[in-house]
Amino acid sequence: MCSASPDMAFPSRTTARAGRTDGTGAQHDTIAAMLLDRVGDTHPGVRTRERTWSWDAVVRESATRADLAAAHRVPGPFHIGVLLENTPEFLFWLGGAALAGATIVGINPTRRGAELEAEIRYVDCQLIVTDAKGRDQLAGLDLGLDPDRLLLVDSKEYADEVAEYANAVPTRAADVGPESLFLLLFTSGTTGMSKAVRCSQGRLARLAYTNSAKYGHVREDVDYCCMPLFHGNALMALWAPALANGATVCLTPKFTASGFLPDVRFFGATFFTYVGKALGYLMATPEEPDDADNTLVRGFGTEASPEDKVEFVRRFGAELFEGYGSSEGAGSVALDPNAPEGALGRPANEHIAIVDPETLADKARAQLDEHGRVLNPDEAIGEMVDKAGAGKFEGYYKNEKALAERIRHGWYWTGDLGYIDEAGFIYFAGRKGDWIRVDGENTSALMIERILKRHPDVVACGVFAVPDPRSGDQVMAAIEVDDPDAFDAGAFARFLGEQSDLGTKSAPRFVRVSADLPVTGSNKVLKRQLQTEAWHTREAVFRWVGRGAPEYLPMTDADRKALDDEFAAYGRLRFLGV
After folding, report:
1. What is the CATH classification number for the domain harbouring 255?
2. From residue 443, how far is each of 340, 360, 448 by CA, in Å?
3. What band does 441 get if pLDDT is binned at 50, 70 and 90?
4. CA-CA distance, 281 to 425, in Å (whole number)?
5. Same domain for 46 and 186?
6. What is the DSSP string of 403-421?
7. What is the pTM of this model?
8. How distant, in Å, are the alpha carbons of 285, 365, 412, 532, 533 from that of 422?
9. Distance CA 419, CA 405 (A)
């Protein structure tokens, strides 16, 4: 790590403190109150490569947007869609909505067409804040809004409106309280359609203080925000804690692996957040001798492979906190420095359990071999639940069916698979839709993905079930490599044969090779699209037929037709969706 400059103090977890409060030591219960506590604070609040705003300036810019929003308000839910990359305007509108009592809907810029149209109409946006690029993306969609309900932040008309309200006094609307709906967060939708999760000001405020204590946030932090602001990762783990402590938020429009280290050095960043695929991209960049010459202290993220985490720490010298949570809820896991590789930590309390969704009985403790592989998956792997969590979940917007699925028997069901080992450590085993049953045996897609990511050429991957022409499922993997034309199927098969923890039912029968796998806006591999396409893609697909060691041969159009004909012969063509 490089040494600090004389005018810069770097944080440590031993100096963590709660940040400014109301002067009595009490923590604020709304985002609006947390913002107003920053009036007069001259510490840098938001930075880009071009400009810096103090926290006082951030609050005043937010007050301007609050008045601007109120001027445009019409009857109905006060929902404001934001279709922007990571820009200061996004943060100013977050603050403005908090002060005005409005709800921000972060619109995923990776959505297109009918899917984008349906999501925006579903959440009842009465105003959309975007730019010329976003306007072009929305062109031709029936959003139920007149053209003047789009505010283009890069237009002269918008600049004039902002100037009109530039002297707004920072204050909060009279009806703003902890229960005020602040965010509608679309779930990533990696294995199904997205839902809009409700998040109140009170919940996000609580998370700000909880995550400050849990991950060591302090005022001296310089928080590099490279994950999208429409997603809970950036808002809950970075922006809200930064607001609670008055730390500096540094923005980049979007994550790029090549831009990560230059940005960290430019801003003097001490903290960042990530998701697994982003970290995988970063680890695929060429290593340089001075990679560790940076200011990073720690990072927080989810779903990175153990190998990528170890490599990141070695190369960049910063500590990583791998967490577990979702937009719907958090707090299921307590960190433990003694946790073995791959474990999340320990259950946060006695109400966190792994259960059989059919019988509701707790699953047996997992027995692990020397590689950490679960020897009794059928007995040990089940769904993670919080038996006391039903009251903590604030629900989905206009989706009672999804709510009923999430809250059953008075329990909060995460929709995720997991297991607890004999020492009491809890592990994530993938999404419920990642459970693949092959020849009557269950296997976890996540565990297979972790093995595939060990291959030096694999940048990212997704593993999912595809139907077998006769019965059950087969395992298919989609891997992303730098040069698909150079992919060596024989070497890949030999690599799989050398992995002692790859179960006999777990080796992929199909391998799709891509230079750019489809992802969600939060950089998670979009497995539902890959699963729908299966081997019906113009990208290269290799298939292993027979028994013994894997041997992958490229699928031709004739091979695809022959396989489809086999499904037809056994009356299972309906499972292909073709």
Report:
1. 3.40.50.12780
2. 21, 20, 8
3. low
4. 29
5. yes
6. HHHHEETTEEEEEEEEEEB
7. 0.76
8. 38, 5, 24, 38, 40
9. 21
